[in-house]
Design a protein that fits this description.
Layout (H helix, E strand, L loop, with lengths): L1 E4 L1 H12 L13 E7 L2 E7 L3 E8 L1 E4 L1 E6 H10 L5 E6 L2 E6 L2 E6 L15 E6 H11 L14 E7 L2 E7 L3 E8 L1 E2 L5 E7 H10 L4 E7 L2 E6 L2 E6 L8 H4 L6 E6 H11 L9 E6 L2 E7 L5 E7 L1 E3 L3 E5 L1 H9 L5 E6 L6 E5 L6 E5 L6
Antiparallel strand pairs: 1-5, 1-7, 2-3, 2-6, 3-4, 4-18, 7-8, 8-9, 10-14, 10-16, 11-12, 11-15, 12-13, 13-27, 16-17, 17-18, 19-23, 19-25, 20-21, 20-24, 21-22, 25-26, 26-27
Amino acid sequence: MKFHVNRDVLAEAVAWTARILPSRPTIPVLAGILLDATGEELTMSAFDYEVSARATIEAGVNEPGRALLPGRVLAEITKSLPDRPVEIVADGSEAVLTCGSTEFGLHTMPVEDFPALPQMPPKIGAVGGGVFASAVAQVAPSASRDDTLPMLTGIRMDIEGPNVTMAATDRYRIAARDFLWRPETGDFSAAAMVSARVMVDVARTLRAGEVSISLGDGVAGFESVGRRTTVRLLDEQFIDYRSRLTGDWAIRASVQTAPLVDAIRRVALVAERNTAVRLSFTQGQVLIQAGGGDIGRGAEVIDAELDGDDIQIAFQPQFLLDGLSGLESERVRIGMDSPTRPALITDDADDPSFRYLVMSLRLA
């Protein structure tokens, strides 16, 4: 195998592929990146039996072939190379990387031991990368980090024709985002649970252009601009989140989003671990308070519109900020029933596309 390639293009593609490499591989070859040079392309692949990554870039291929190289070392080397074209020649047990006057010799790993990557399932539709990334960023913070409950570590995707809903929950809050996409067939419907960690990674790295989504045989696939990721699906079992996000609220408040977020962040500086931020809504304003323990206390008042009775309600600060930070509107609507029941945070549209239900905390 022998090829030459642009240094920046190679470094970016290797870094993108290496991101899924396991820190403690069950077998040594899973720590490798497979390089496959053919025609006028170089394809880099990584796989840990759950998630696969494949990036294809243009390359001048003099001798087609394949080589399996230590992935993390290759990523460190390529990002540190001088701004010159890179040539890689693999023959036998060593691959020689040359860039200007810099040369590295890397021991190759047995290509025949590298597992076959899963095939990309059938394409079911496509969505703009910005819309996809925005939706994932809004719902992913609500997914659980507790791997003992796999159902709660994923993002649920419900697809009905041109409508998609992403949802996640960790039992303390539920986030859901609706958006439109372009299905391959107008009457297509499906439900899938995808690891939130993988979805965040996909959204961060595939947001340019359009994202093609594939689904089938227990695998989901995402592809954009020459890069594709596959991931095994989680169990489809999930809560009935839609019923929890609908209904009438006895008390409704409307507040400018940015000032509310800034105020919560400021007063939360004196909130001790696992203590609440209190919001006291009265006609025309909301008082945000935190602290009162060993550190000190903080308070700030901002304008608010209130429809209903005055109410004081408390939340875990970061949970509240996760919901507010997901909004893309200038004003936030907060629906409440009582200080002991969850509150619903939405944007200010008549039919909000983002909904976030968060549990309140008992006031001391």
